[in-house]
Specification:
Distance between the termini: 61 Å
Number of helices: 24
Oligomer: single chain
Low-confidence stretches: none
Number of domains: 3
CATH superfamily of the largest domain: Thiamin diphosphate (ThDP)-binding fold, Pyr/PP domains
Mean pLDDT: 95
Helix content: 25-40%
CATH class of the largest domain: Alpha Beta
Length: 629
């Protein structure tokens, strides 16, 4: 007879979480679920809350301030651990649950594991309508948690305790599947959480969940090799899948063996050492002119572990019309895009098998040499941007990135997400001569404002386990700070240090650039052009330094008119404060709203015919690829 133990549904779920094990890229065995972010309310405080309290020494629970913020911290934790560990986030019913939908979107777009446990209304329905319940007039089975369905890789509503027996193996599968990885949502009705059931004891035995390394179909590999052998000007695109496979060294060895230039996407950034002669720089709209020049003349694109997002491909206007596309991806969904030749499997395994089929073949030597010369030109351009202030004498984003870059050690970690920062980080950051894994989280899949204040909390927690003594730095604008800043207090309260560099440029400057650059009038983006009736555009400003101090952060305020040396000194002080006081340090500086790092590549946005930017739009649309050969 099967041995059983009587537990509530919540207790069984939590004990199962504790029993799951995972593996880091180096083979180290770790808890698969590293902890829980929680805000309790009716719907989770007594069921899940009581169960979590019972295992608090094995599965720590961290108190968030906003459900969105804590769930974003969980996403960043997963990214910083290369998808090898997962954080859980739980909320009450109604608005608390809905606040996590945005974070689920971030995880889904970026293919990152996240387990969300939103409280749900009663399955028994006796007290309906309960506080915070939204009633559907036509369907009594629907709750607000159904809003998670479009942004979940796996969704289930646990309406009976024994359903966990069938659902939980699927939860583990999705969270550790290299091709299907993404957010999992288990909606937890509050009456079901406290129901008791005799669960089999074996359900709680320790279990190692290894991330599989699926091998490609040999016929697909051979066909890819034939495409490459027929090429002279191939270009490898290194995406996030290379990071999650731990295949950076294999990719670089493959490129070196065959003389193929390599470029990185935002998700694959910092996988390659910058001094390498085949590293042509980052690709796309927020990439480098050097990589874009080679992409425009390549005859074969080998896309490894990337979904080829519009900022990577310059809205598919970057490549020549006759380019051949080979896509290596663990997810068939991404591999078949744009009718490229798909090789489905783990990046490391695919590269190893493809290398065997290409023995003796090399790209054209003049093409290989072009990579180094184009990159040298881009580096000189970045040097010039770092050396010169904006026309009005204020600091530029390029200078801020340069200061942080120069002061960061090989294990330090930098994070950005929205506004002008992604372009500056992607285009201007330089990785050291040796890489031991990715050191950047550029959340440019969903580009979620506010990720930059919540994400470093999760990233700092993850990096403390794997890189003790290293420091996380987040770069963000004033707009992101104002949109979501509550988790700065969470990190300060919990004692997790990082540096947040807040670049105050007086509004949503990057969207203002997009707006006015196409010929539209500046409107509702900068504080100076957002003044409606009664607005105090010139009189009211946020004191970011005072606000951050009020949230418990250490603060360094670099005054207006500061020099690069002042910024360098301020950043060094912020690093010392964060590390010494074990809390976030916020550095505030004033940056130019009109000085940018430009790659020269196009990005498609709808441009009305009456605007001056329409001519460029029409020209770019004419060269936009819809299908590869």
């Amino acid at each position: 007879m099967t041995a059983t133990v009587r537990l509530t549904t919540a207790q069984a779920l939590v004990r199962w979480l504790v029993a799951q094990r995972g593996e880091l890229l180096d083979g180290t065995e770790v808890p698969l679920f590293a902890g829980v972010f929680g805000i309790f309310g009716h719907g989770n405080v007594l069921g899940l809350g009581t169960a979590l309290h019972e295992v608090r020494d094995q599965l720590p629970t961290w108190r968030g301030q906003t459900e969105q913020g804590m769930a974003l911290a969980a996403v960043a934790y997963a990214k910083a651990s290369d998808r090898r560990q997962v954080m859980v986030a739980t909320s009450s019913v109604g608005p608390g649950a809905l606040n996590m939908v945005t974070a689920a979107g971030v995880a889904h777009a970026n293919r990152l594991p996240l387990l969300l446990l939103p409280g749900d209304t009663f399955t028994g329905r006796a007290p309906d309508p309960v506080l915070q319940q939204v009633e559907r007039f036509d369907d009594a089975t629907v709750s607000v948690n159904d809003a998670f369905r479009p942004v979940s890789r796996y969704f289930d509503r646990i309406t009976r305790a024994e359903q966990l027996l069938a659902s939980l193996p699927q939860v583990a599968r999705v969270l550790t599947d290299p091709g299907d990885c993404g957010p999992v949502v288990l909606a937890m009705p509050q009456d079901v959480q406290v129901e008791e059931f005799d669960f089999p004891v074996g359900m709680f035995a320790p279990r190692l969940n290894r991330v599989p390394r699926p091998r490609p179909d040999g016929r697909d590999v051979q066909a890819a090799a034939e495409i490459l052998r027929a090429s002279r000007r191939p270009l490898i695109v290194c995406g996030g899948g290379v990071r999650y496979s731990g295949a950076g060294r294999q990719l670089l060895d493959f490129a070196t063996a065959h003389g193929i230039a390599v470029t990185e996407t935002a998700a694959g950034r910092t996988m390659l050492p910058d001094p390498h002669p085949l590293n042509v720089g980052p690709l796309g709209t927020i990439g480098s002119a050097s990589a874009n020049a080679l992409a425009a003349d390549a005859d074969v694109i080998v896309a490894v572990g990337t979904r080829l997002q519009d900022f990577t491909t310059s809205s598919w206007s970057l490549f020549p019309a006759d380019v051949r596309l080979v896509t290596i991806n663990a997810a068939r969904f991404d591999a078949v895009k744009h009718a490229g030749h798909a090789v489905v499997g783990d990046a490391r395994e695919c590269l190893a098998e493809l290398a065997e089929s290409l023995t003796g073949w090399n790209a054209a030597s003049d093409w290989t040499a072009l990579a180094a010369s184009e990159r040298a030109g881009w580096d000189a351009h970045i040097d010039g941007l770092r050396a010169g202030a904006a026309p009005d004498g204020s600091l530029t984003y390029a200078q801020v990135v340069g200061v942080v870059n120069d002061a960061s050690g090989p294990d330090d970690y930098v994070l950005g997400s929205s506004g002008g920062i992604p372009g500056e980080l992607n285009g201007g950051w330089r990785t050291g001569p040796a890489t031991a894994g990715a050191t950047m989280d550029l959340e440019y899949g969903f580009s979620c404002m506010g990720y930059e204040t919540a994400g470093p909390w999760g990233a700092a927690m993850a990096r403390a386990r794997t890189h003790p003594g290293a420091l996380v730095t987040a770069l963000l604008g004033d707009g992101s700070y104002l949109m979501l800043n509550s988790e700065l207090f969470s990190a300060a309260f919990a004692g997790h240090p990082f540096v947040a560099v807040v670049c105050d440029n007086g509004g949503y400057a990057v969207i203002h650039r997009l707006q006015t650059g196409q010929g539209a009038a500046g409107f509702n983006n900068m504080f100076t052009d957002s003044a409606g009736p009664g607005a105090k555009a010139d009189a009211v400003r946020v004191d970011f330094a005072a606000h951050a101090a009020a949230l418990g952060c250490a603060v360094v305020d670099v005054a207006s008119g500061a020099s690069v040396d002042d910024l360098r000194d301020g950043y060094a002080k912020a690093r010392a404060l964060a590390s010494g006081e074990r809390r976030p340090a916020v550095l505030v500086c004033r940056t130019s709203p009109s000085a940018w790092t430009e790659s020269g590549a196009w990005w498609e946005v709808g441009v009305p015919a009456a605007l001056t930017g329409r001519a460029d739009y029409d020209e770019a649309k004419a060269r936009q690829l819809r299908w590869t050969s």
